[in-house]
Structure formats: structure tokens, C-alpha cells
Amino acid sequence: MSTDKLHISTMRSQLGRARGLGSGKAGTVEHWKIERLTAIGLIPLSIWFVVSMLRLLGAPQFIVVLWVSEPWNTVLLLALVALTFHHMQLGLQVVIDDYVHGRFTHFAATLVNKGAAILLGLFAAVAILKMAFLGPAVAAAVAHALSAQ
């Protein structure tokens, strides 16, 4: 009789440890949907980016800056960066939820994951916007330097 109670309490303890952790926690369906939507959005953006980079292969830097400064390209590059880093953060969060145990360690890993995704995404967005807004000035400076020769 005492072994049955021990068995039941052990099962409850295991169930208690599993609640709120890992891939079985609430909100996983929404997380799964968002991860799939970002993946679907990344397909055409990635194809566009690869084709564009192949067309710019061997071009001087100022031509690439002028290409980035075109509004359509700026918007698509910003969308690519946003979706890429959000998708990366979602995927790493699944790994953290499944393999990082302990409240503090899980919290710290989640914080680093989200912080790194936001910080790297902001760095990339600032670089794109800098090229977008300074593109015409760079083109004018290069044209002036070429005409002076």
C-alpha cells in the first residue's frame, strides 16, 4: 500500500515539474503559426535578395549604396531583416524551452535570445537606413570625384 502512494506522489511530482515548461506550455499553437508565417514570408524575400545580390556581384560600393537607397529595395531589405531576426528568435526559443532547465537559466537564456535578436536587428536596420538616406549624397560625391579626374 505504501508503494502505491509513493508511486502516485512520484507521478504527481513529475507532472508538477512538467507544467509550464517545454513545448507543452500554453501558447504553443500561436508560436507555431507565427514561426510558419515568418518562414513563408522569408521565402520570396530571400529569393529576391539572392537574385539582387547576384545582379550586383562585382559592382562598386557606391552602386550598391544607390541600389539600397531605392525606396522599394529599402522596404524589402527592412522586411527581410525583421522577418529573419524574428524567425531566428522564435526558433531559438523552442530550443531554449526544450533543453534549458531551471528557472533562472531559462529566464537568462530567453533574455539573451530576445535581446540579441532585437540588438542585431536594430544594427542591420540602422545600416540599411543609413545607406538609404545617404545614398544620393554618396552618388553625388562619387560623380563629383569622377568628373574631377
Automatic annotation (TrEMBL):
<keyword id="KW-0249">Electron transport</keyword>
<keyword id="KW-0479">Metal-binding</keyword>
<protein>
    <recommendedName>
        <fullName>Succinate dehydrogenase hydrophobic membrane anchor subunit</fullName>
    </recommendedName>
</protein>
<keyword id="KW-0816">Tricarboxylic acid cycle</keyword>
<dbReference type="GO" id="GO:0016020">
    <property type="term" value="C:membrane"/>
</dbReference>
<dbReference type="InterPro" id="IPR014312">
    <property type="entry name" value="Succ_DH_anchor"/>
</dbReference>
<keyword id="KW-1133">Transmembrane helix</keyword>
<dbReference type="GO" id="GO:0006099">
    <property type="term" value="P:tricarboxylic acid cycle"/>
</dbReference>
<feature type="transmembrane region" description="Helical">
    <location>
        <begin position="45"/>
        <end position="68"/>
    </location>
</feature>
<dbReference type="GO" id="GO:0046872">
    <property type="term" value="F:metal ion binding"/>
</dbReference>
<keyword id="KW-0349">Heme</keyword>
<comment type="pathway">
    <text>Carbohydrate metabolism; tricarboxylic acid cycle.</text>
</comment>
<keyword id="KW-0812">Transmembrane</keyword>
<dbReference type="Pfam" id="PF01127">
    <property type="entry name" value="Sdh_cyt"/>
</dbReference>
<dbReference type="InterPro" id="IPR000701">
    <property type="entry name" value="SuccDH_FuR_B_TM-su"/>
</dbReference>
<feature type="transmembrane region" description="Helical">
    <location>
        <begin position="116"/>
        <end position="143"/>
    </location>
</feature>
<dbReference type="GO" id="GO:0020037">
    <property type="term" value="F:heme binding"/>
</dbReference>
<comment type="subunit">
    <text>Part of an enzyme complex containing four subunits: a flavoprotein, an iron-sulfur protein, plus two membrane-anchoring proteins, SdhC and SdhD.</text>
</comment>
<comment type="function">
    <text>Membrane-anchoring subunit of succinate dehydrogenase (SDH).</text>
</comment>
<keyword id="KW-0813">Transport</keyword>
<feature type="transmembrane region" description="Helical">
    <location>
        <begin position="75"/>
        <end position="96"/>
    </location>
</feature>
<keyword id="KW-0472">Membrane</keyword>
<dbReference type="InterPro" id="IPR034804">
    <property type="entry name" value="SQR/QFR_C/D"/>
</dbReference>
<keyword id="KW-0408">Iron</keyword>
